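User: Structure please.
Assistant: Input sequence and predicted structure:
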Amino acid sequence: MKKWIVSFWSLFFPPCCVVCGRVLLDGEAHLCTSCNMDMPRTYFHLQEGNVAEQLFWGRIPIVRAASYFFYTKGSRFRNLLYDLKYHDNKELGYFMGRNMAKELQPTAFFEGIDVILPVPLHPARKRKRGYNQSELIARGVSHVSGVPVDVLSLYREVNSSTQTRKSTFERWENVEKVFALHPSCDFSNKHILLVDDVLTTGSTLVACASLFASYKNVRISVLTLAMAA
């Protein structure tokens, strides 16, 4: 019965590509084949000392860092991020996390990583949006990599304003003393993968990573869905 209802609904409201808006064909999900092929992938996971890693040099010790694709102002691939954050498209985050992890998996990007920590939203903002897009991406990554997701240890205790349209300095100010770790957690001798949706200045991820400095032999890696070009 449910399958019949879905088929009937799709007849009048067919699923469309979140990037270009074209009606999806059988076997396609969220992205059409053309947009998937045209996605401006970074291939950072194939480059030691890539641009994403360089962004953290001198700020926090980093094992590795990667972003899946570049986005620029006016690019149609910004539609993907907008749909994920503001159109209640939860499955898209999980889908993109899985796709990203499938491409990174053969390069041993996840080798040695013990736990995935998504960058958290403040509870008030999460209630308003209904979900944390970074958590959805992280769970998609976990599904492929087998690395567990921890959504309890790292939390946001200050409901800071959005980073959009802020300068580099304002972004740093905006995330200062915003995040915290649960006092009962212990990340000594752990390799942590921080996951976020977009990498711009790195201020949010640096603020999160800095919290682990007091733990013995902790290692940090970073993975984001997109990077601002």
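The longest strand covers residues 219-228.
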